[in-house]
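chain below, 335 aa
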Amino acid sequence: MILLSLLYFFVFLVLALAVKAYPVKSRSHNLFFSVIVPFRNERRHLGPLLDSLKKQSHRDREFIFVNDHSDDGGEDLLAGQELTLLHLHDEYGKLAALAKGSHVANGEYLVFCDADCSPKWNWLKTLNKRVHEDAVLFAGFVEIEESAFFTLDMFMLIGIASGLDFFHIPSSCAGGNLVVRRDVYESFLDELDSENSLTEDTLLLHTIYKKGWGNSFFFFDPDTVIRTRGYASAKEFIRQRIRWLKGGYRLDLRLFVFLAFIFVSHLLFLLHPLYLIPAAAGQYIFLRTLLKRFHRTKLLYLFPFYFFFHIVYTILSGILFLFLSGEVEWKGRKY
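prediction:
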């Protein structure tokens, strides 16, 4: 057990060094972005999102909204606006919506944004500065609206993904804050089968690596962080974590080994609480290093509570993932 706890500490120490060393690149160019927003029954969020997009200081952009069989009348809010509105008919799901939007896009780069997100006024301007030719897929961080606690959790998860990316190990990314070169995305669509994906963003990331189309890159710039709504319930939170596990664990053996290591470690540490001490130290060093780069170290006051929450929910999600086979429900659909 002591060796396991020391290995756990070492893993998070290495991840901390990775996020500390992760570069920030800057380019002087003027890119045209096609912002694609898939939506399904998001009427109460579409208005605020549209207001945020209209305020973007980067003017070389277009907005493409794709309606995924909504029945709340949300598409009526978009009528008469300076945007392209598309509707899915025979297709279903976020992946189909993104694909349909990409087919009419004019930009060299596609920007994916969820309907419940709220970007800052300089979001696209900062993306324009940070996108570079050394990668084809760019992932941003996400914070949870009015919830410092779940923002800490989101930074933990995306931070781990960025740390793994530093070592060229693809894991996951946030689909609500993503930039991809349009020609690469078109190649990705050509590779897909007819099945819908639980985690289209993670599938995109792993396909790019497997096909050798280019590199991925995470934005370490506070102005690229996007805000999204919180969870409606604990059930929704757990469902999302199980969806991420089911959608991503088979995509890369290294990712599967890493997830299994975390799950087994947390389970054993909970059974032997003394070994939680080095685990907590490793997580704290990692989070402090990460949050310092985003000027959010004030979130660390939540760490004592978050650490135990993180241990428990990863165990619970892992157990449910192992023993609850079959379909996963998400946004009123089963996958």
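Residues 22-232 form a domain with the Spore Coat Polysaccharide Biosynthesis Protein SpsA; Chain A fold (CATH 3.90.550.10). The mean pLDDT is 91.
thats it, cya
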